[in-house]
Amino acid sequence: MHHLSVSGKAADHLFQDAPFADERNRYLRHCAAHGSTPAVLRLKRDELIWIARRLRPDADRGVGMPDLLPIAQARQNLHGAATAARRVIDIGRPWLKFLGWWREPAIQFSYHRHLDRYVAWMRDERGLTPSTVEQWGRATMRFLRWYEQTDRQLGEMRAEDIDRYIATEGAGRWARVSIANVVSALRAFFRYAAKEGWCSHRLAGSIGRPRLYRQESLPYAPDWSDVQRMLADVDTDRPRDIRDRAILLLLAVYGMRRGEVAALRLDQIDWAGRTLRLFRLKRRQPQIYPLVPTVAEALARYIDTVRPPSSCQEVFFCMQAPRRPLKATAFFDVANRRFVALGIEAAHRGTHALRHACAVRLLAEGLTIKEIGDHLGHRSTQATSIYAKVNMAALREVAAFDLGDVL
Question: What is the DSSP letter of 26?
Fold first, then answer.
């Protein structure tokens, strides 16, 4: 851990003398390992001493916001500033979560046990991908929260209830594609619920899925010239741009999903062999790609000059303390920031738009659907067929694509 020389031996004695010394030390070592600076660590230490002296001795049984707020208010009364109270919350809650002591507010939800069992079944028995489990679980939770307002049991549910849910909740907000996704999620849940004896086995089959047409959802990729503009915009000496350029290249050249970029580790880059080993989320197996020079240069520059030293093996980190690995959701902002800054018009402005751009680029150069699917890590050609719903004549005008020299 970084050296914390606040007030010499007196401060060290104060720190160790306060309750929960081991728990505080472990957390500060964790923060230091994830990039917190000495100044930030000193601030955290002082706040943790204040909090620890005011926690109950049995805090390990659970601490919630009702317990933390009075401690924050006392800190504010002492300093006369609302920021003092905010600091207690912002520092105390992550510490308590790290220890596993934080108790989230109890949310009354009649069907949370049903939902938990369903999510566990999707994950552990069906082996669905994390993104599918998350999306179907969220869609099911929204429906169950709506249904619990009827004050009826699942066994009393009728097909008309589901129709009414889609009509009232989706009116003016859901396109046919969105409705189809919700229906698929609910069908899967009701099949499971019927197997568990929670509802009628006829319910799943009664849900009508709207017909989707082949041209209904055209690819939303930006032009390749816009992708080149984005990459040129981050070709600077600024640390954030150096990091973002490496990320954008992985998205555009390899068509990686944001979760795949987030999970990329240092040991997946073979510098000597000039290969990149990717773990595609849908295929659930590694794929070996050539490490093209442009990407290799961008990755090496980021790792050598910007990436903080860390015991974590993930490649990409936050730019500000605590310097921890980027979560998958943060990669949307990396891409979206460039779309907005350059005024690039596209139906969608996130990481998946660059994945589409990669696929459309390959399609324009005459690669088959099977070849593009292999490159993108699809499990079937059906998943790739969306990229064929474009104007091939217009695509042929795009300049020649060469993985060895993408720019």
Answer: H
